[in-house]
């Protein structure tokens, strides 16, 4: 009979809610809460149950605390309506409360929460997301969903929660999955959705799907006045040594960190060989702008670890330290995060899924990284800031102005000033400064042994024609002397050599002979280097160089322009 009454009660119509109605609902919910606590030996009538449901459904919580309170009252109401009164007048009456079935808890959750399957990629496994009323974003964090379940019935087990999540998933699988909002002109701020086309704030909306936001309000304020006269604009001027292009690039860095919905297409290195240069201060400022909750922490090596991606894919920014002397065998994750391409997310105990994510990757380092293979796509996306200004000894402190890092960059008004200024700049392609290009060239040279070999040795040759076989043998000697891995084939060496040859050199595979332009002194220099490799014999060099018939054969070689061979 109770189930039939409840079905009738569930037909209570839902209505749109105004702010005034919401305030009135708060008063009614508090009154209802007190009334439910007073029920011991009384059963709810259908009319009372419908009345209470109307009050609860008419309320739209604005914070998680309010949502959990409403769910708690819904659970209490359901238990009171389903309870059994036992006992008699002589011995007294008491109530027994049957547990709320998982299916019913699922129905209650759907009435007060928004659930969606969200993905920008067609995939078999698409995670379950829940809308967070306090942030205006969606989350796949099962702890947050389980918290709502526990609010309805606080004695459920982890297995019970998993069953309810399963019911939620089955229900929403009947509807198509939804993509993340892909409009790059939306920025999710603390106080609403900023439309960069109009620079107006819009209210959060569960139908506009975002998974990350910034922690600062979009608000036009003046730069705060600090006792020592410090300003953020002067700080950037110092870092840039007065170079206006570098100052603009710094502001772009801040802007890109705040652009929650934009595919960044870059990853940023903050580089300095000095101490107390401001790298850490700027990194912390970026974290303060987006919020600790929306910032991932992972260095370059960790970005290539499978389970690390689960902790950063839904972040606005990924900050990394401890990158000194880093050598990377692969960098696919970093590239995919920068480009917003699909990336595999593996969470322990859950099915892996694919997601599109584009946090801004910012890595701080005192030495430059090297890659086993550095592709054009990787090179073109690097942006490097060279911190040349050291604050050691400023204000008599070996670490510089401590107040900046401890106090100033945490000041709410300063953060609002910075965010407003950055978001009112035109969104453009990230600047590639002269410093950035120079340091990127150093990284490329460190990462490409053929390029490093060419730069170090090619101009030392007296020959105007160099057989590829000789160059390859010399390259192998050079690798041994530099303590670098020798996993190269002559074919691989030749392919890479063609990419990095200076413009004054040309490659020919079969139409020229080396005898006319090859200098014997180059062989002797090479042979002297070879003798420095303890116990090593480079195959074939001697026989090759002193065989006149071989030198007269057409073969792969490089030659300088305007050389007739």
SSE diagram, text form:
Layout lengths: L1 H9 L8 H19 L8 H12 L6 H19 L1 E5 L3 E5 L5 H11 L2 E3 L10 E5 L4 E3 L2 H11 L5 H15 L13 E4 L2 E4 L4 E3 L29 H8 L4 H15 L8 E5 L7 H12 L4 E3 L19 E4 L6 E2 L3 H8 L2 E4 L7 E4 L3 E6 L4 E2 L4 H6 E5 L15 H5 L5 H12 L10 H14 L1 H9 L7 E3 H14 L8 H11 L4 E4 L11 H12 L9 H5 L2 H4 L5 E4 L5
Parallel strand pairs: 9-15, 9-17, 10-11, 11-15, 12-16
Antiparallel strand pairs: 1-2, 3-4, 4-5, 6-7, 7-8, 13-14, 18-20, 19-20
Helix pairs in contact: 1-3, 2-4, 3-4, 4-5, 4-6, 5-7, 6-7, 9-14, 15-16, 17-19
Organism: Lactococcus lactis
Keywords: ATP-binding, Nucleotide-binding
GO molecular function: ATP binding
Could you list some keywords that capture this structure?
five-stranded parallel sheet, alpha/beta, three-stranded antiparallel sheet, 565 residues, 14% strand, elongated, 20 strands, single chain, 41% helix, 4 domains, Rossmann fold
Can you describe what's shown?
- The structure is a single chain.
- The protein has 565 residues and is an alpha/beta fold.
- The chain folds into four domains: 1-98, no CATH class; 100-179, no CATH class; 232-442, Rossmann fold (3-Layer(aba) Sandwich); 448-560, no CATH class.
- The chain is built from 21 helices and 20 strands.
- A five-stranded parallel sheet has the order 10-11-15-9-17. It has a three-stranded antiparallel sheet with strand order 3-4-5.
- Residues 4-24 and 535-546 have low confidence and may be disordered.
């Amino acid at each position: 009979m109770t189930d039939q009454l409840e079905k009738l009660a569930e037909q209570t119509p839902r209505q749109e809610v105004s702010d005034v109605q919401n305030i009135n609902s708060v008063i009614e919910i508090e009154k209802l809460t007190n009334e439910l606590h007073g029920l011991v030996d009384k059963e709810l009538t259908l009319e009372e149950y419908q009345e209470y449901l109307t009050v609860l459904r008419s309320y739209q919580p604005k914070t998680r605390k309010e949502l959990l309170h409403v769910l708690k009252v819904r659970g209490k109401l359901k238990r009171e309506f389903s309870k059994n009164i036992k006992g008699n007048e002589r011995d007294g009456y008491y109530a027994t409360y049957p547990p709320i079935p998982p299916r019913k808890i699922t129905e209650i959750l759907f009435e007060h929460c928004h659930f969606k399957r969200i993905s920008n990629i067609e995939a078999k496994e698409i995670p379950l997301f829940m809308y967070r009323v306090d942030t205006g974003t969606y989350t796949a964090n099962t702890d947050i969903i389980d918290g709502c379940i526990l609010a309805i019935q606080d004695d459920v087990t982890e297995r019970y929660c998993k069953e309810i999540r399963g019911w939620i998933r089955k229900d929403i699988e009947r509807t198509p999955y939804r993509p993340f909002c892909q409009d790059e002109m939306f920025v999710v701020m603390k106080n609403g959705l900023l439309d960069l086309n109009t620079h107006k704030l819009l209210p959060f909306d569960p139908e506009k799907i975002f998974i990350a936001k910034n922690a600062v309000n979009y608000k036009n304020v003046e730069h705060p006045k600090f006792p020592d006269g410090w300003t953020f604009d002067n700080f950037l001027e110092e870092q840039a040594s007065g170079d206006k292009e570098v100052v603009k690039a710094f502001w772009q860095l801040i802007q890109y960190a705040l652009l929650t919905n934009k595919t960044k297409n870059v990853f940023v290195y903050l580089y300095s060989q000095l101490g107390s240069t401001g790298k850490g201060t700027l990194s912390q400022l970026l974290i303060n702008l987006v919020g600790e909750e929306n910032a991932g922490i992972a260095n370059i090596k960790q970005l290539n670890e499978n389970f690390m991606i689960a902790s950063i894919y839904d972040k606005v920014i990924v900050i990394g330290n401890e990158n000194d002397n880093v050598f990377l065998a692969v960098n696919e994750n970093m590239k995919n995060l920068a480009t917003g391409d699909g990336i595999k997310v593996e969470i322990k105990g859950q099915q892996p899924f694919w997601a599109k994510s584009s946090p801004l990757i910012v890595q701080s380092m005192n030495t430059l990284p090297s890659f086993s293979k550095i592709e054009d796509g990787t090179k073109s996306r690097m942006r490097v800031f060279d911190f040349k200004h050291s604050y050691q000894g400023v204000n008599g402190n070996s670490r510089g102005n401590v107040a900046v890092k401890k106090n100033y960059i945490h000041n709410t008004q300063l953060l609002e000033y910075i965010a407003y200024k950055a978001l009112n700049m035109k969104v453009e392609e990230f600047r590639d400064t002269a410093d950035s290009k120079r340091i990127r060239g150093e990284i490329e040279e460190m990462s490409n042994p053929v390029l490093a070999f060419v730069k170090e040795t090619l101009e030392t040759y007296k020959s105007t024609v160099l057989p590829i076989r000789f160059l390859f043998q010399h390259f192998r000697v050079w690798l041994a002397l530099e303590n670098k891995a020798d996993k190269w084939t002559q074919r691989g060496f030749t392919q890479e050599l063609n990419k990095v040859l200076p413009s004054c050199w040309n490659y020919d595979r079969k139409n020229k002979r080396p005898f006319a332009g090859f200098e014997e002194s180059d062989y002797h220099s090479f042979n002297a280097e070879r003798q420095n490799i303890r116990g090593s014999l480079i195959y074939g060099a001697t026989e090759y160089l002193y065989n006149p018939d071989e030198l007269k054969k057409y073969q792969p070689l490089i030659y300088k322009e305007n050389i007739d061979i």
